[in-house]
Amino acid sequence: MTTVVAPIRTVVDRPTFVGLAARELRRLVVNPVFLFGVVMVVVSEGLGPDPGVVEIDTANPYTAIFLGGFGMMATYWQTRSMRHSEPVVGVTPTSLPARTAALCTLAVVPLLCSVPALFAFLHWFPIGEPLYGAFSPSARMAVLIGQFVLPSLGGPLLGVALGRWVRFPGAAFVVFLLFYGWVSLVTILSMSHADSTFVAVLRLFAPFAFFTFTGDTGGELTTWRGSPWFFLGWQLALCAIAVLVALLRGTEGQVRLRIVRALSVVLVVAAVLLGLAATGGFTHPVVAE
């Protein structure tokens, strides 16, 4: 992460950054889209488990959808509307990358909201339950972090990047639908091609992934290929890419060169981590007996 932090330090003046970040955080916590996402997470995680749950992945996408997906839409629209902050920004002139860095701090809020959601989920589904498949206890925890915490961080960061580069008002909603459709498509492919390395790459080529499957009528629990730990690394790399792409807007000279270099490094690391995520873990699907 030092590859990402170094370029940020070159565009941020600390006192001004703190003021901007505090203002934008206050705007986010009253954003109706974000508040709706929080309410839906409270409802989905607070009502208790569905007695018909036969494997963990049928019960845990809601935090990623409502904190990650709706958080992305909230930060996108807030980034596009930052012009309303110009009267305050104008008092202490700041660069566009500095304002972008302040906007990136918004991701801290849904990230923090995802933590109690994760603990609530663990209350209903303890880590030792057989619903998690054949993974070890530590790998099961990695699965949950990758499905609760990191999507809640990456979604809002992507919203900032989209807000800096895309002018179409509904861009974040379109991206949300594309992600939802992609995850659904590659999950369906995995059901019929569970042994395929290529399909495993497709399934993990996303900010969110499922790792178990039982079918619509229950039956044997299948644990799919892939390393949950390397998938966490892939997700963190995606978060870093979103930050660097957002910071590119409005930079020039040596600062832009440093960001481009950092982005190149992170892209290579992301590709390696994706490969390791797809080829690591189990070498073939494991079916519970």
Any descriptors?
289 residues, mainly alpha, globular, 3-stranded antiparallel beta sheet, 3 strands
- The unreliable regions are 86-91
Tally of DSSP β-strands: 3
Shape: globular
Mean model confidence by pLDDT: 87
Rounded radius of gyration (Å): 20 Å
Percentage beta strand:
under 5%
Helix content: 55-70%
Oligomer: single chain
| Separate helix tally | 12
The profile of the biggest β sheet is:
3 strands, antiparallel
Q: How many angstroms separate the termini?
A: 41 Å
| Structural category | mainly alpha
Order of helices and strands: HHHHHHHHHHEEHHE
Provide the domain count: 1
In the sheet with the most strands, the strands line up as 1-2-3
